[in-house]
């Protein structure tokens, strides 16, 4: 926030919430990028088709599908068994994943499926491997997980977009017409309010504690006890104190 123009009859204050624009833009890009990744590249479901040939060898085909239907295909020859792998996160959270073991290596399935669903999958596949059945189709899906992740990412996108489109403020004091004009202008809206200068009672500075430091806001206090902030978005102490001092000097107000 700073004084951009000062004459004997006019004082112009401008506040641009650059930190909000930058943080909101980064948040928007981050959320949008991860949302696109999750719906376009992460797998939502799979289908495992196994057949027993004669001689008694089992050949399986694993198909994985993304949200938009993109498919990858993998051959698994002679699976020996399946088991559930448990992964523990840094905060103690657990996730479960089915691993299929064959003579040619191990193959991981979807990573965000419940333990109960994985248990059913493993039981059915191991039963097939140890039986004489000739054909089986098994499926997994993690659509619920991706749905909630998508909601979370969309929330981040909306929050970022809202912050990135915060309004800039221009506050102009006119002695010639005895008025103050406060203009809020942004992508979402434009609003201009005006008051007679004689209705201004005083100015004061409000502060609030952020995570690491205090931030400040210049507020016009009118004689009817109405308060209007010059800068709705809090900013640094030095610029706010400087602006308030210049306004008081311009209007010949006592401290």
What topology emerges from the helices and strands here?
Elements: E1 2-6, E2 10-15, H1 18-40, E3 43-52, E4 58-66, E5 71-77, E6 79-88, E7 94-102, E8 105-108, H2 115-129, E9 135-141, H3 143-164, E10 168-174, E11 179-185, E12 190-196, E13 200-209, E14 214-222, E15 227-229, H4 237-251
Antiparallel strand pairs: 1-2, 2-10, 3-4, 3-9, 4-5, 6-7, 7-8, 10-11, 11-12, 13-14, 14-15
Keywords:
rod-shaped, five-stranded antiparallel beta sheet, alpha+beta, four-stranded antiparallel beta sheet, 29% helix
What does the model show?
This protein is of the alpha+beta class. It contains four helices and 15 strands. It has helices at residues 18-40, 115-129, 143-164, 237-251, and strands at 2-6, 10-15, 43-52, 58-66, 71-77, 79-88, 94-102, 105-108, 135-141, 168-174, 179-185, 190-196, 200-209, 214-222, 227-229. The strands form four sheets. A five-stranded antiparallel β-sheet has the order 1-2-10-11-12, with helices on one face. Strands 5-4-3-9 form a four-stranded antiparallel β-sheet. A hairpin with a 4-residue loop joins strand 13 (200-209) and strand 14. Helix 1 (18-40) packs antiparallel against helix 3. The longest helix is centred in the first third of the chain and has 23 residues, at 18-40. It is rod-shaped. The two termini are 20 Å apart. 20% of the residues are buried. The model has no long low-confidence stretch (mean pLDDT 91).
């Amino acid at each position: 926030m700073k004084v951009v123009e000062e004459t004997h009859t006019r004082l112009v204050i401008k506040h641009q919430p650059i930190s909000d624009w930058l943080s909101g833009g980064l948040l928007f890009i981050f959320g949008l990028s991860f949302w696109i990744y999750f719906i376009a590249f992460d797998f939502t479901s799979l289908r495992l088709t196994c057949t027993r040939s004669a001689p008694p060898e089992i050949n399986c085909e694993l198909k994985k599908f993304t949200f938009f239907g993109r498919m990858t295909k993998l051959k698994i020859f002679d699976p020996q068994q399946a088991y559930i792998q448990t992964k523990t996160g840094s905060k103690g959270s657990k996730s479960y994943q089915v691993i299929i073991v064959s003579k040619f290596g191990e193959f991981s399935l979807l990573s965000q499926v419940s333990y109960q669903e994985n248990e059913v999958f493993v039981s059915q596949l191991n039963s097939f491997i140890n039986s004489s059945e000739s054909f089986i189709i098994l499926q997994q899906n993690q659509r619920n997980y991706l749905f909630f992740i998508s909601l979370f990412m969309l929330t981040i996108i909306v929050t970022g977009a809202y912050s990135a489109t915060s309004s800039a403020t221009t506050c102009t004091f006119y002695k010639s017409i005895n008025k103050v004009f406060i203009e809020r202008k942004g992508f979402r809206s434009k609003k201009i309010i005006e008051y007679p200068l004689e209705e201004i009672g005083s100015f004061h500075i409000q502060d609030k504690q952020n995570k690491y430091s205090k931030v400040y806001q210049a507020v016009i206090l009118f004689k009817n006890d109405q308060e209007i902030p010059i800068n709705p978005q809090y900013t640094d102490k030095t610029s706010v104190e400087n602006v308030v001092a210049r306004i008081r000097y311009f209007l010949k107000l006592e401290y």
